[in-house]
Amino acid sequence: MNIPPAAIPGRVLHLAQHFKLLSMLMKILVMRKINDINILRTFFSVTCLMTAAFFPTALFAQHNQDTVKSNLTSNGGDIGQQMFDYSRPGKYHQIFADLVGSWTFKGRRFPLNPDPSKAKFDLFGTHVWKPFAEGRCFTVDMTFGDSLHKMRIPIQNGKTKEVIGQGIAIEGYDNVKKKFVQVYITNHIGSDISFWEGSYDLTTRTITFDCKEELVPGLKDEIRELLIIVDKDHYTLEYYHKENKDYVKDTEVICTRIKGE
Q1: What does the alpha-carbon distance between residue 113 and residue 236 come to, in Å, rounded to a whole number?
Q2: Distance from C-alpha of 134 to C-alpha of 216, rounded to nearest angstrom
Q3: At 179, is the pLDDT very low, low, confident or very high (cuts 50, 70, 90)?
Q4: 20, HSE (Cβ side, Cα atoms, 13 Å)
Q5: CB-neighbour burial class of residue 44 (10 A; exposed 0-12, middle 13-18, buried 19+)
Q6: What is the pLDDT of residues 15-43, one digit of tens each?
Q7: CB 117 within 8 A of CB 108
Q8: What span, in angstroms and rounded, lies between the C-alpha atoms of 174 and 172?
Q9: Crossing angle, helix 10-31 and helix 37-54, to 10 degrees?
């Protein structure tokens, strides 16, 4: 019986994909008659890591006997090492590493007053950057407002509630795609998880992230975020939405490091 992928729990499907990869690796090793002890150790290590990570929800699937050709590398004996090497943090991860710590921010929204000279800073809160996986990714915990300045959010049964705004972001750099990546959720509006990809301009020290959202069926929006590194104690976030073919500035957020953090 063929089960459509959508009907298979994500963790189980992920496991099946990993065992397929292991089967491919074994075939490569056998075909090349590889007996180098370091390569065999690498293969054994990868096998143990994958099995240990997914054993609680193990799925044993029977694969067909067609010849499988790996597109991971031209040298099958290097696959395990490449997996490690492509997972290492590098110079682009260091951009986020330099932001680790606690920050305060103030922001202003331009749609309320398009004249920048008259747009008031009516947003404020905090960002806390933390490293994860030895600097491979970074989490950002965000708060908006305080006990005296809350926002109204939707809750169950058609009701709303006033709370302090909260958000969580995961920032990183994908060594394979060669793209900056970000996922983002808040407790304000939206039941989705925003996925962003971006590139870095060394001259302006700016990461440009792009995202597509659909908060209401049929109401699609293209959003752009600029993360501008001013210096080690200051960075700015600028948000734009696309109108026709142009990006229009929505919000500007100025972030300052909390001394001693």
Answers
A1: 20
A2: 38
A3: very high
A4: 16
A5: exposed
A6: 344 444 445 545 544 444 444 444 444 44
A7: no
A8: 7
A9: 170
